[in-house]
Amino acid sequence: MDSTPPFPLTSHLTSLIPNRPALRDSVLPALLTAISQIALALRTASVHTSGTSNTFGDAQLNVDVLAESHIRAALLLCPSIHTASSEEDPVERPVHPVPTAPGPEAYTLAFDPLDGSSIIGPNFTVGTILSLWDHPTSALHLPPATSQIAAILGVYGPRTTAIIALRLPGTQGTAFEVSLPSMTVTVPRILLSLPPVTGTRYFAPANLRAAAEDPRYMVLVTHYIRERYTLRYSGGLVPDVVHALVKGHGVYVSPVTAGSGAKLRRLYETCPVALVVECAGGGRGGRRGGGDIEWVKADGRG
Ligand SMILES: *[C@@H]1O[C@H](CO)[C@@H](O)[C@H](O)[C@H]1NC(C)=O
C-alpha cells in the first residue's frame, strides 16, 4: 500500500479482495460494525452473571449474551454466511430463517463473542474472536490451512481495534489493524520480526499453575525468568496475542496437563489466532521459526 495510515478500510479491501464482493462489501463491514457496537455497549454495561451456562459448563455473563446478540444480528445482514456457531452456542445452525442455495461466495462463521470473561469485571482488555470458513457448513471438519480464509480479533481496550487476517486461496495471507469505529486502517501490514530478537523479550505463560505439576513447564518458565524475559500477561488471549503482534515478537505458552486442562478451543480460539499469527509472518523459518511465538500445546476441544 502506498498510502500513509490512517486511510479508509474500503480502499484497502478493494485492493486486497478484488474478486469477493460479498466478503469485501458485506461480511467484513457487518462484522466490524458489530465489534464497534459491542465496544460501545461494554463501556456502559454492568457485569453480572446471566444465570445460564454454555455447553462447556462456563457460567455466562450478561456481557457474553450481549456480545453474542450483536454478532448474530450482523450475520442476518450477510446473505453469503449460511451457518454459524459460537462458543456460547456451539451447534452449527443455519443463520437465515429462510435458507437460500449457496451462491459463488458461501461461508460459515465460528466465533467467540467475548473472550476474557474472568477479567472483564476489573475492566481489563477483552476481545472478540471471529473465524470465517470458505464453505457454507461444517467449519469443524474443514482443513484450516485452506478453508479458514479470514479471522478477526476485536480488541476492547482504551482504544477499540480489530486485527484482520485474510488468506484467500492462492495468496500468502496478510494481517492489518483497523481502528474502530472510524473503520480506518492504522497498521497496513502487521509483520512479526524474524529471530533473533534484539532488546526486550516478552513471555506470556498461560495456565501457569500447571507448572506446579509438570516439571517441564516449571523449567521452561524458569528459563524465561533466568534469561531476563519481561512478563506481559493479562489473562486475556486476545490482548496477550495482540501484544506480541504490536511488539513484533513475544512468547505465548498455554500447556495442557492431566490435572490442569487449558480452555482454548480449536474452532473458536486456536484456529483463528493461528491464522492471525501465520498471516503476520509467524510461520516463517520452520516450526519454531519466525515471530518467536511458540505454541506448546492447545487441546482440541470444540
Ligand atoms: C472501562 O475502561 C474504559 C476505557 O478502557 C472506560 O471507557 C470505561 O468507562 C471503563 N468502565 C468502567 C465501568 O470503569
Quickly describe the structure.
With 302 residues, the chain is α+β, with helices and mostly antiparallel strands.
Keywords:
Fructose-1,6-Bisphosphatase, Chain A, domain 1; 302 residues; D-Maltodextrin-Binding Protein, domain 2; 2 domains; binds 2-acetamido-2-deoxy-beta-D-glucopyranose; alpha+beta
Order of strands across the main sheet: 1-11-10-9-8-7-6-4-5
The helix/strand class is: alpha+beta
* CA radius of gyration: 19 Å
Give the termini distance in whole angstroms: 37 Å
Strand content: 15-25%
CATH topology annotation of the largest domain: Fructose-1,6-Bisphosphatase, Chain A, domain 1
The CATH class name of the largest domain reads: Alpha Beta
CATH superfamily of the largest domain: Fructose-1,6-Bisphosphatase, subunit A, domain 1
SS field, number of helical segments? 8
Average the pLDDT over all residues and give the rounded result: 91
Helix content class: 25-40%
- The CATH architecture classification of the largest domain is 2-Layer Sandwich
The arrangement of helices and strands along the chain is EHHEEHEEEHEHEEEEEHEHEH
The hetero molecules present are: 2-acetamido-2-deoxy-beta-D-glucopyranose
Shape category: globular
Uncertain runs: 286-302
Largest sheet: 9 strands, mixed
**Integer count of domains:** 2
Oligomeric nature of the chains: single chain
Work out the number of β strands: 14
